[in-house]
Amino acid sequence: MQDDTIYEDEDVKGTIRRLPENLYNDRTFRIQRALDLTMRQQILPKEQWIKYEEDKFYLEPYLKKVIWERKEREERAKK
């Protein structure tokens, strides 16, 4: 999934910590599987590929909230 490859800045790290357990476990599994395949220099079998229509941005709603909260803290700090 595309969100598995997103650069992990502080906002994204905070988002990952807030993920529900099932989304966090799925993400961890996909990343570990990718690392394992890379180490063995293999490609994921085509029948296990995610279709473009199925690829969703699962971090987006959580990331928006984390960014909004950070901006709110920054605004309060200015006052």
Topology summary:
Blueprint (H helix, E strand, L loop, with lengths): L9 H9 L2 H19 L20 H19 L1
Describe this structure in words.
This protein is an all-alpha fold. The protein contains 3 helices and no strands. The protein has helices at residues 10-18, 21-39, 60-78. Helix 1 crosses helix 3 (60-78). The longest helix has 19 residues, at 21-39. The chain is elongated. The N and C termini lie far apart (40 Å). The model has no long low-confidence stretch (mean pLDDT 91).
Give a quick precis of the structure.
The protein has about 80 residues and is mainly alpha-helical. The chain has helices at about 10-20, 20-40, 60-79. It starts with 9 loop residues before the first helix and ends with a helix.
